[in-house]
Specification:
With 226 residues, this protein is of the alpha+beta class. The chain is built from eight helices and four strands, in the order αααααβαβαββα. The protein has two domains: 5-84, no CATH class; 94-225, no CATH class.
Length: 226
């Protein structure tokens, strides 16, 4: 039994509020006492189903608000990180562009036949097309494109999208592979499908070997930092 008059008042008030269905945190906020004290004073009080449902809903709402607040906080943190990171790179000279493209091809390019890059990210494809043109001397008109899309996707719209992005003529788009319906794959993950950009004309195999020689040289030079 609580003997101190002030604590006694808080004790009685806490029990009253608990019987009304308030949570321990709500009671704590109203009375200015610790949550452990509220829990000790009110642990024998049973709440109705309606009161328990209300506390569950409130807890879910508080959790959601907390998650939203944390998400917004993290967004601001990421924005600040990107702001700082973006200022660390101010120029891209031709040599750096050449090396970056070689590494990109090492990761995303065909390894055993022809010379082509396969990806779904428009930024990577746009970069690769510019790299083929500026570094390898292969303009968009000498590139061939093939799409891999899902059943139900708008093939004409997707071809137009990639053609406008890359400046590859529509006539240079080959037969599209359409994944059949009911294969268990979601169709909204890659709205523009996957595109394969290949170099046409003689010497494409030689170009692939040259690109890999660049990548291998970059790897060898990187050992100085290992």
């Amino acid at each position: 039994m609580v003997q101190n008059p002030q604590k006694r008042f808080a004790y009685e008030k806490a029990r009253l509020l608990r019987r009304r269905g308030l949570s321990y945190n709500e009671i704590k906020a109203k009375l200015g006492v610790s949550k452990s004290s509220v829990s000790l004073w009110c642990r024998d009080i049973k709440l109705s189903n309606k009161q328990n449902a209300r506390l569950r809903d409130r807890s879910a709402a508080v959790f959601k608000l907390g998650a939203i607040a944390n998400h917004e906080k993290r967004k601001k943190e990421i924005f600040a990180i990107k702001e700082i990171g973006g200022k660390e790179i101010t120029i891209l000279n031709r040599d750096a562009f050449k090396m970056l493209g070689a590494i990109l091809y090492w990761c995303e390019g065909t390894k055993n036949q022809n010379t082509a890059v396969v990806n779904s990210d428009p930024r990577i494809i746009e970069f690769a097309v510019a790299w083929f043109k500026e570094i390898c001397g292969v303009p968009p008109s000498q590139l061939k494109a093939y799409l891999h899309i899902h059943y139900g996707n708008d093939e004409k719209k997707i071809i137009k999208f990639w053609s406008q992005l890359t400046n590859i003529p529509l006539k240079n788009f080959g037969k599209t592979f359409i994944k059949p319906k009911g294969t268990g794959h979601r169709t909204n993950i890659l709205p523009n499908g996957i595109i394969r950009i290949g170099v046409t004309g003689p010497g494409t195999s030689d170009l692939r070997h040259k690109i890999f020689s660049w990548a291998e040289k970059i790897y060898e030079l990187s050992k100085a930092y290992q």
